[in-house]
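## retry 2 of 3
previous attempt timed out at serialization; input unchanged, resubmitting
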Amino acid sequence: MSSSPLPGLRAADSPPTFLPGPAERPLGDLPLTVLVGVTGVGKSTALAALREADPALKVLPDRREVTDAVMILPLSGGPVSDREERFRLTALYRQTHPGGMAQALGSLLADTGHWGEQPVFDGLRGEDEVRYAAAHFPRWRFVALGAPDAVRVRRLLGRGDHFDQIRTEGAEDLRAALEGLKGSAEVFTAAELDDLAALVKEGHRPEDILAKTKIVLSERRNYDPAAAEAALRTLPPERALILDTVQLSPEQVGAAVRAWTGGKA
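## retry succeeded, writing output
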């Protein structure tokens, strides 16, 4: 990446100079607080709670923005909205950058006059990114947020994000279509698939249920949340906080993170 469209961030080898400016620091050297988790675990809700508690909090451009700027645009030449195509392109990026998003983020220079010295980033996913970040950026600390996959599908249905686009077919027989999705049997029990199919009784369209379930399964194939959490559990407690967003409310998640960081995130 020769330049970055991200405000206050740029690649170290980008114009106007290869040398950092007086206020620029590599993000890899700053004490970032990094949210870890896949789509629908509650990162955005937790982040909103943190911002409400601390209006001065500096939050870096999110994973989606960094992915577009660093990974997808150089490969595609333009914007990509379909989630599975984005997963394919980011997988291509990881073939030459095994640290994935952690490697991409850590390579950027940040204007600390804009972002401060202790920004927050949302977020990392999967074992490879977590292990790379923990090994290469010792000042980073991690907050892992988790929720069961069936809960994640429900949350995706409820949030109405235009970004959650994916091609689907076969929603006419929803229960059979859900069972036929790649990896479905390894992630969901038969009872969970029954419950997902029954979401039509709550007013959700079959094609939406199928699409959100497909997103969850696609993400699981690329970023195993259980493996990421296991990797974080090997770190000292001052570097990793693991929270269940089903057991805790967004306010409780925000309070737990602020207590853990000493009120500096």
